Amino acid sequence: MFAAIKAEYPNNKYPIYISDNLTSQISLFLKGHPKSNIIIIIDQVFKDKKLHIDQNFTSLLNDYNTYFIDGGIENKSLSKVNELCNLIFNLKIPRDGFIVSIGGGVIGDLCGLVASLYMRGINLIHVPTTMTAAVDSSIGGKTGVNFNKTINLIGSYYHPKAIFIDMRFFLSLEKRDLNSGIAESIKSAFIADIEFYNFLDRNSENILGLSFDHIYDLIYKSIQIKLYHTVSDEKEQSKRLFLNYGHTFGQSFESFYGIDESLLRHGEAVSIGMVCAAKLAEIIYENKMILDQHKSLLLKYKLPIEISKIKSKKIPTIDTLTNGIENDKKRITEGNKFIICKELANAEIIIINDKSIIEECFQTVI
Fold this sequence. Notes:
Helix content: 40-55%
Structural class: alpha/beta
Strand order of the largest sheet: 1-2-9-6-5-3-4
CATH architecture of the largest domain: Up-down Bundle
CATH superfamily of the largest domain: Dehydroquinate synthase-like - alpha domain
Number of domains: 2
Number of helices: 14
Distance between the termini: 43 Å
Number of strands: 11
Radius of gyration: 20 Å
Order of helices and strands: EEHEHEHEHEHEEEHHHHHHHHEEH
Largest sheet: 7 strands, mixed
């Protein structure tokens, strides 16, 4: 099974490959470039060769400059950007060299920002190894690091030259990380595609069981939806905003837990945030079905729908969460922008400046 999707942005065009056998294609893509001009920045879990998906992957790491880093959220920082820029400088990587990012969303976002800054832009390749990175964070050109306990406060827009999604990497994921990544696909279905929603609803056992046929369809459809919302709106002025569904509420939870993924994964925060958004739709549009539709699908993928289900005895107050919303970086003078679904696959942007409504939404998940 193999797909090559064209990402066609106004000033950037590149392929996104999906398969269960892509490592030789990565080598071929790099073949015409001097090995000394290429740096692979990879999650340190791959120091364990048991996680190498084939011999081609092992050879790839042996053939090029390879630098292992911890893919934890704490490394999504300016200090790590500085470290990587120093590394590239000391290796004398030229402007037509390549950074090859191999890992999850943290490493992809970090490498993307470094690539956009170093010499005002050097070549970048993404090889996402987590579900979150494959269906969401590697697509669309957003890069960023966290700053002052705020997610992606410092970042840029910068596209890779290619993305290689090899599904074999997902076989070694912890179930919690797999499910967390699927939350981003569920988000796409809620905002944009009722057929995708029905596919996810019917096939949860096959997807959680890592049937490649079903995972392939999930990734392919997720990327199509992501490209639809980003190609004509790279800088998030209109259509791309819909992809923040669940994130405005969710980031308030992430900030409360100190962006600590041992307590709350990003996709878990988005899951709880989507339940809050569904409650907002129930209030604004008097849609009596939307909340149950959200809860039902999220539970099929073992995602939390209330904060008591996460691994922490510390529960935020409603005031704390509401204050977190008020400090959201996307807030404008009139209030906070929320993405809500009038009905499934019919998303809208609304502005809420009524604290009591926001509090009622948070109460749903406490």
